[in-house]
Amino acid sequence: PILAHADPPLPSAPATVGRRLADGTLWVGSSQGLMLRTPGASRWRLFHSRRWLPADDVVDLSVRSEREVIVKTSAGSSRLHAESITLPDKIQVIQSMCRKYHLRDGYASQISLREPGNLETAEMQLTDDNDGLWTSLYVAAEAFCYAVTGDVEAQRHARRSLEALMRLETITGIPGFPARSIVPIARDPRPYGGEWHRSADGKWWWKGDTSSDEIVGHYFAYLVYYAVAADAQQRDEIAQVVSRITDHVLDQGLYLVGPSGKPTTWGVWAPEKLNHDLSRFEDRGLNSLEILSFLTVAEYITGKPRYREIRRELIEKHAYATNAVGQKHVWPTNEINHSDDELAFLSYYPLMVIDRKSTRL
């Protein structure tokens, strides 16, 4: 009865078992997992799947203390225990695991486990369509860590992955055109899935049809590392690669153009597409935001007035700033892709932090 009109309502219903503690804490089991609501909380916490439970159907509970509960399911029991940890300690755990299991030649990669829950059985994914994007996030995270703490290990890891990111652009042989991913031919003689090309030295495969997602990541990582972690020589290296990527996009009419001589599937920021091609309607807001962000980063890092002038033209003649305001207004609503929120956040960041009246963030 106490759950019949729960506010907020249960994430999973109906309940199969429940315990209410003296302080008002509620532990509730269901066929879809375990739920917790502490006194004064505005929402329930949901514990489900193999991360927390052997099976999702909770059949019984034993609350040992306010920080410990035993959960019985059809596949066995779990002990959930809360521990306090400082944010620096938590970050250290995450960084250590990331560095041990998820870095492949400097690229941030996914892993799969041959045995569920056993990290020692981890197998690293050899390639991913978004190697550039995921690695960019890692570069920025480590660069921010170095800027705040002065941790030279964070700087070293940020630098190594930055070099991996820059390698995606130089390996294609097309100035300003980064690959999605690269794989040593000796390690994977016949990669599959997508558009693959051999590097000029014959030692690498590189993956083409690069998307706007990748380019968003590159600009974000280059800006953050340039601003908070780079020395003078590294700033020059970053300025050169940012110039090549930006000039490539502009010289190709606001398209990303690969070895076929045609725009890639998603590397499109041109007004004739975003503003006048209904097949690109859903890309209008986000891609307008992206290119304005790219040009802002490029001007900040290189100081070239060309980028400022083209940004102004896109705003004044093609309404790109107005397009960007509506980037989250997508129709039909089932076309909303929340990974696009990530691309929007990464594109907003430079626009929010760069002070155009100076040469600093």
Seen as an oligomer or otherwise, the chain set is: single chain
State the share of residues found in helices, binned by percent.
40-55%
> What characterizes the major β-sheet?
4 strands, antiparallel
Work out the number of β strands: 16
Topology, element by element:
Layout: E1 15-20, E2 26-30, E3 33-37, E4 45-47, E5 58-65, E6 68-73, E7 76-81, H1 87-101, E8 103-104, E9 107-108, E10 111-113, E11 122-124, H2 131-149, H3 152-170, E12 182-184, E13 196-198, E14 204-207, H4 212-228, H5 232-251, E15 255-257, E16 263-268, H6 271-274, H7 284-302, H8 305-318, H9 320-325, H10 339-353
Helix pairs in contact: 2-3, 2-4, 3-4, 4-7, 4-10, 5-7, 7-8, 7-10
Tell me what you see in this structure.
The protein has 361 residues and is of the alpha+beta class. Helix content is 41%, strand content 19%. The protein is built from ten helices and 16 strands. Strands 1-2-3-4 form a four-stranded antiparallel beta sheet, with no helix packed on it. A three-stranded antiparallel beta sheet has the order 5-6-7, with no helix packed on it. A hairpin with a 7-residue loop joins β3 and β4. It is globular and about 65 Å long. The mean pLDDT is 93.
Question: Which properties best describe this structure?
Answer:
361 residues; 16 strands; 41% helix; globular
A few lines on this structure:
By secondary structure, the chain is of the alpha+beta class.
